[in-house]
Amino acid sequence: MDSFSNPSSGSSHQLSAQDLKNQLKSQLALEYAQQFLETVGRKCFEKCVTKPGSSLSGSESSCISRCVDRYIEATGIISKALFSGSH
């Protein structure tokens, strides 16, 4: 059975167009989330950890937390601006 078959039907019927669209949306969302986390992690680490060691100092940990929070907030603002008129 390929990834486009409907697993609940037990046969090889194709997914409906809406099911396929939903599946693609989910895959794109997952890919976006992975890329977002990699980017944020890399950028925040570069910004906050100037002397890498075996553990994070309190100030490094706080900096990373604030940095990630700012990226998430900015992403939310951008998403709202991009998609507010699309419904």
Tags for this model:
87 residues; Helix Hairpins; mainly alpha; single chain
Report on this structure.
- This protein has 87 residues and is mostly helical.
- The protein has a single domain, classed as Helix Hairpins (Orthogonal Bundle), CATH 1.10.287.
- 67% of the residues lie in helices and 0% in strands.
- It has two helices and no strands.
- The chain has helices at 17-48, 58-83.
- α1 (17-48) runs antiparallel to α2 (58-83).
- The two termini are 36 Å apart.
- 1% of the residues are buried.
- The model has no long low-confidence stretch (mean pLDDT 83).
Provide a short characterization of the protein structure.
The chain is mainly α. It has helices spanning about 15-50, 60-85. The chain has one domain (about 15-85): Mitochondrial import inner membrane translocase subunit tim13 like domains (Helix Hairpins), CATH 1.10.287.810.
> Per CATH, what is the topology?
Helix Hairpins
CATH top level is Mainly Alpha
Largest sheet: none
Mean pLDDT: 83
> So, CATH architecture?
Orthogonal Bundle
Topology, number of strands? 0
Helix content: 55-70%
Pfam families: zf-Tim10_DDP
GO molecular function: metal ion binding
Family: Belongs to the small Tim family.
Subunit structure: Heterohexamer; composed of 3 copies of TIM8 and 3 copies of TIM13, named soluble 70 kDa complex. Associates with the TIM22 complex, whose core is composed of TIM22.
